[in-house]
Amino acid sequence: MDKARIHRLILDRLAADLELLQRAAQTAYEAATHEENVAENKYDTLGLEASYLATGQARRAAEIKHSIGLFQTLNLRPFDPQRGIQLSALVVLAAEDGSEQWLFLGPEAAGLKVQLEGEEITVITPRSPLGQALLGKAEGAEITLNIGKGHQHFEVLQVH
């Protein structure tokens, strides 16, 4: 699996998400400032609600811009068994039930998913419990996550 292609897919997805969000924020801003949405009484809150929406969308757009910057400067390193799993690693995990998942350890954008060669690859960060558990591990390592009162067990099948 080509990590450079995955990296490019992640950047493309973040750029598309940013563009969509910026258009939505502009629409919300226009609704908030439109003369027809000036409050006529204390119960008329359409303009205020649009303002809150525009502010939230602008904040999310700033987060995506930050993520794009971090991914643009991310150094894609080959897996080094001496160091174990580090940032930019592509990991295949197997769960107890036999299911497998592909994970890309990135600096931001946790939960973002991209498709490559029929596989869904999910971005996780070192700040997540799973990301923390993977750091420094190698192929064959077993990981246990304590989630609430339960436990989830995984095996590292592959690292790229």
TrEMBL record:
It comes from Metapseudomonas furukawaii (Pseudomonas furukawaii). GO terms for molecular function: DNA binding; translation elongation factor activity. GO terms for biological process: regulation of DNA-templated transcription elongation. Keywords: Elongation factor, Protein biosynthesis. This is Transcription elongation factor. Pfam families: GreA_GreB (PF01272). Gene3D superfamilies: Transcription elongation factor, GreA/GreB, C-terminal domain. Residues 123-160 form the Transcription elongation factor GreA/GreB C-terminal domain. SUPFAM superfamilies: FKBP-like (SSF54534). The lineage of its organism: Bacteria, Pseudomonadati, Pseudomonadota, Gammaproteobacteria, Pseudomonadales. It comes from the Bacteria.
